[in-house]
Design brief:
Number of domains of chain C: 1
Largest interface: A-C, 42 and 30 residues
Shape of chain C: globular
Oligomer: heterotrimer
Number of helices of chain C: 14
Helix content of chain B: 40-55%
Structural class of chain C: mainly alpha
Shape of chain B: globular
Order of helices and strands of chain C: HHHHHEEHHHHHHHHH
Strand content of chain B: 15-25%
CATH class of chain C: Mainly Alpha
Chains: A alpha/beta (267), B alpha/beta (304), C mainly alpha (357)
CATH architecture of chain C: Orthogonal Bundle
Order of helices and strands of chain B: HEEEHEHEHEHHEEHEEHEHHHHEHH
Largest sheet of chain C: 2 strands, antiparallel
Number of strands of chain B: 12
Largest sheet of chain B: 6 strands, mixed
Distance between the termini of chain B: 64 Å
Distance between the termini of chain C: 25 Å
Number of strands of chain C: 2
Number of helices of chain B: 14
Strand content of chain C: under 5%
Strand order of the largest sheet of chain C: 1-2
Helix content of chain C: over 70%
Radius of gyration of chain C: 21 Å
């Protein structure tokens, strides 16, 4: 279990997070929603272990994140950033292989290549493997980064015996993984998130699209002005009242014709 | 076969003879004992050193000179080993010198050591800014080149000239205050000569007194220093005057314009190497300056 | 496409490049030692070297040739290799650290700090030597330069570090500020200097491999080697840091420790180089670029190849510097600038299109 309790974060005199708690369990997809400035990325950074809160604590499997070595953490959780600034001409394959860095010494080159290949396929970027990263579009880059973080946590491990099983749950933290993607790829990415959850990985994704969240997440967490505004299943959270309150947008809530989850339509 | 053998014997004998001729040791300016032998092909470093070599009539022995060796004009046609403080051993060695005559302060020290380690004697010639210093230079260069007789002749000639200068200007009671200005580049302010400089030396020889007493070496002139100096005469090298932009630019410099020399436009311009080199022409330089400082003094014929 | 053969092909190309540049350096080294103003034939060179081990080979050589080869050319060539390797390695590492292909050791304040200290040593040197008579005059300048470079880098690093984290952007700005201040300091010293000192200064600022002897080299070589040999160990962290510092942390690297180490090692390598040769520009900037063009941005290849290529480049530049204006020598900084400058411009013009660095 990856959890953060009563987190307070201050930047100067501004209180960015005022005490929300959040957890991700193995096998579930948690979507974090909220308007801009609500503190979502900050909370993700705390959960990732890169930001130490002023109050409160984040822990993985009961042990405080501050007590984990960077390498040990990297073997358990991967973070997909909102944007990546790689300005040097690495081939896509090598960018994905960078994800295998924490495994150095415990893996073979052949195993790494096999894992990279599988992750490229999962992110639907196999055809880009030989291209230079800097020649890709924003959406393509985002998918390559997805492949990289999947490689980091041994996503295809069930298929590759010598990739090193470990028996401990992995976690994926995705910061707006769909922001540059076209419609088809947005859904493909979230389907990947679901598949990851099916393999026992705990997935947390910051999303802006309420409908996507409703379709793919097991649990929604809504942040507003640094505080927890709502938590629960999509059906429980996505009510007209809450959406108007938290997002300042009057909407109609309907049911999806085939999936049964809530669908938001602005008025 | 016999003829070649005989020729070889003759050459060998001649070499033996020449090889041992005039092998002697002298102590140079650094206190090192240097052994000089052979009919010496020479690299000369330092304007005054080169001048002395020419004055001794031994310019045929010169393989190369440095970038400060500007007189006589023929010297500038010789290969140039660069700035005297930035020498490089290997190119000098490639010229095949049997002796390197270097004025004090040549360098870098490592290069000179490399020359010595390669078997080339290096004689450092002292450079004090006095008449005695000039004569010592002549003596050392002459000894190093193995031409003591010619050296003595030059020594006497220069000593006589310097004595004449001392006679003409040494006893004068009224010594004008002279300020020497050195310009190094167009964009920088000119430097004034303080104590312990060659400029001070030549001014003293010419019957003047260095207007600057407050610092040593060459430093930029502050307005306070200019006021304290109150020079009656300004002395500049010809190249410096060009760099400063000519007489009017010089006199337009605020610190200068306010001095007595500036107000009365009393400026003496003399070729820089001649003036500061402290070589064989020192007496002429002093006479030239002295004539300007003391127009009423009549010079002996030797210095006309 | 077949990923493993793609990866293998790249791997093989990388190794080939490493071998190529390694052999290139060996060849350049032989050229540097064997060629110069004094004529020494290849047979004689070998005989001189063999004689050092007691072997007596049939080629005759003179004492002068022996002195030139062993005491002048050999230490000079070794220094060239070390300096070229050090400057190229720090350049490559700092470009990775700053995630900017235009980064250069001068940015962290090393060069100007060293320059300022050297300038002070030149202008006030006589006074300092009088105070500390035991200090050999020859060592004052290199010691001062080294100390100055390290001190400025340390200052820049401290300004940019807070709570154990170093902000690269702040480091850049601090470097700019340091450079400005050092520049003013140098300008002031230039103002105070006299004719001779000014010339010494100019020559030092243009760099030279002349006058390098074994005893001076022995003092700085260990420090340079530490820098040169340690930096390649940071290749993997540098690769990860190219993604971004947080990403590198997410991948499990101790980024703060790596940053600290890289800055210190780069300052060490550059500071010691500046100490024995004065300022030699462009090597740290141009060499990693050229290597990236042929071998890619992966630091595991970039660092070692840059070291090899930088060493070769400095040796070649020095060859020109000491043979173009015989019997004088050009300061090597002029040669590297004349070649490096236009080349760099050409690089910039060529790469206007997409494809980054």
């Amino acid at each position: 279990m990856l959890r953060a309790d009563d987190i307070q974060v201050r930047y100067g005199s501004a209180e960015v997070l005022r005490g929300p708690s959040l957890s991700v369990a193995p096998g579930e997809v948690v979507a974090v929603l909220g308007p801009n400035g609500a503190g979502k990325s900050t909370l993700l950074a705390v959960l990732a272990g890169t930001l130490r809160p002023h109050r409160g604590e984040a822990a993985l499997d009961g042990r405080a994140l501050a007590d984990w070595s960077p390498r040990a953490l990297a073997l358990r959780r991967a973070v997909l950033p909102q944007s990546s600034e790689l300005a040097f001409g690495f081939p896509v394959l090598e960018v994905v292989l960078l994800g295998r860095s924490p495994h150095a010494g415990a893996t073979t080159r052949a195993a790494d290549l096999a894992i990279a290949e599988a992750c490229l396929a999962e992110a639907e970027v196999t055809h880009l493997a030989g291209r230079l990263y800097t020649t890709l579009s924003g959406g393509e880059r985002q998918r390559v980064q997805l492949a990289r973080v999947l490689a980091q946590i041994d996503f295809p491990k069930l298929d590759f015996p010598d990739a090193g099983q470990g028996g401990e749950a992995r976690y994926l933290l995705l910061d707006e993984p769909t922001s540059s993607l076209d419609l088809a790829h947005q859904h493909a990415t979230l389907r990947t998130a679901r598949r990851a959850a099916e393999r026992g990985i705990g997935v947390l994704a910051i999303l802006h699209d309420l409908n996507l969240a409703a379709m793919y997440a097991d649990r929604l967490v809504v942040l507003s002005r640094g505080e927890l505004a709502a938590e629960g299943t999509p059906a429980e959270v996505l009510t007209e009242a809450l959406v108007r309150e938290a997002f300042d947008l009057p909407v109609h809530v309907t049911r999806h014709p085939t999936r049964g989850c809530p669908q938001i339509s602005p008025i | 076969m016999t003829r070649r053998f005989l020729a070889a014997v003759v050459v060998l004998a001649a070499l033996c003879g020449v090889g041992n001729a005039g092998a002697q040791s002298l102590v140079d300016a650094t206190g090192k004992e240097v052994t000089v032998t052979g009919d010496r092909r020479v690299v000369a470093v330092g304007g005054s050193v080169t001048e002395i070599v020419y004055a001794l009539g031994l310019e045929d022995r010169l393989l190369a000179v440095d970038s400060t060796s500007l007189y006589p004009a023929a010297a500038t046609e010789l290969p140039n080993v660069g700035y005297m403080r930035q020498l490089s051993a290997e190119p000098i060695l490639a010229l095949g010198p049997e002796l390197v005559l270097a004025i004090e302060d040549s360098g870098p020290p490592a290069a000179l050591d490399q020359l010595r380690d390669a078997g080339v004697p290096v004689v450092i010639v002292p450079d004090p800014y006095t008449p005695e210093g000039v004569l010592a230079k002549i003596d050392m260069v002459a000894t190093a080149l193995g031409v003591e007789e010619k050296g003595r002749a030059l020594h006497s000639k220069v000593a006589a000239e310097l004595a004449a200068v001392r006679e003409a200007f040494g006893g004068i009671g009224e010594r004008p205050r002279v300020l020497f200005l050195l310009a190094v580049s167009k964009s920088r302010a000119a430097l004034a000569a303080g104590r312990d400089t060659s400029a001070e030396g030549i001014i003293a020889l010419a019957g003047g007194i260095n207007a600057i007493d407050g610092f040593e070496s060459y430093k930029p002139l502050s307005p306070e220093a200019a006021v304290a100096a109150a020079p009656e005469v300004l002395l500049v090298g010809s190249r410096s005057l060009d760099l400063m932009g000519g007489m009017d630019s010089l006199l337009a410099i605020p610190e200068i314009a306010l001095t007595p020399a500036g107000r009365e436009r009393r400026v003496v311009v003399i070729d820089t190497l001649l003036l500061l080199g402290f070589g064989p022409r020192t007496a002429q330089a002093a006479a030239q300056l002295g004539r300007q400082l003391h127009p009423s003094v009549t010079l002996p014929a030797a210095l006309q | 496409m077949d990923l493993s053969s793609f990866a293998q092909a790249r791997h093989r190309r990388g190794l080939a490049a490493l071998w190529l540049f390694g052999l290139g350096l060996a060849g350049t080294f032989l050229l540097a030692v064997g060629y110069g103003a004094v004529e020494i034939g290849p047979g004689q060179s070998i005989a001189i070297l063999a004689a050092q081990t007691g072997l007596d080979l049939p080629w005759e050589f003179t004492r002068q040739q022996e002195a030139v080869l062993l005491a002048i050319r050999l230490p000079r060539a070794v220094a060239g290799v070390l300096v070229g390797g050090a400057l190229a390695a720090s350049g490559a590492a700092l470009q990775g650290l700053f995630r900017n292909p235009l980064a250069d050791p001068a940015l962290i304040g090393v060069s100007n700090g060293a320059a300022l200290a050297a300038v002070v040593a030149i202008v006030l040197g006589a006074g300092i030597v009088r105070l500390v008579p035991a200090l050999p005059r020859d060592l004052l300048l290199p010691l001062a330069a080294f100390g100055g470079g390290l001190a400025t880098t340390f200052l820049v690093y401290r300004i940019a570090s807070r709570d154990g984290r170093t902000d690269v952007a702040t480091m850049l700005l601090a470097g700019v500020a340091m450079n400005a201040m050092a520049g003013a300091g140098i300008g002031f010293m230039v103002f105070l200097s006299d004719d001779q000192q000014l010339r010494d200064l100019n020559y030092w600022l243009l760099g030279s491999l002349g006058g390098i002897t074994w005893d001076r080299l022995v003092l700085v070589a260990p420090l340079m080697l530490i820098g040169i040999l340690s930096l390649p160990f940071f290749a993997r962290p540098l690769n990860a840091m190219l993604l971004g510092e947080s990403e590198a942390v997410h991948l499990g690297f101790s980024v703060e420790r790596s940053k600290r180490a890289i800055v210190v090692l780069a300052a060490l390598a550059t500071g010691t180089s500046v100490a024995i040769t004065g300022v030699i520009g462009f090597v740290g900037l141009v060499v990693p670029h050229l290597v990236r063009l042929t071998a890619g941005p992966d630091h595991r290849l970039l660092l070692p190849i840059s070291i090899l290529f930088g060493a070769s480049l400095v040796l070649i530049a020095d060859l020109f510097a000491r043979t173009l204006v015989l019997p004088a020598e050009l300061p090597i900084g002029i040669v590297t600038a004349c070649v490096g400058g236009p080349f760099f411009l050409w690089l910039l013009l060529r790469r206007r299109g997409p494809g980054g660095w």
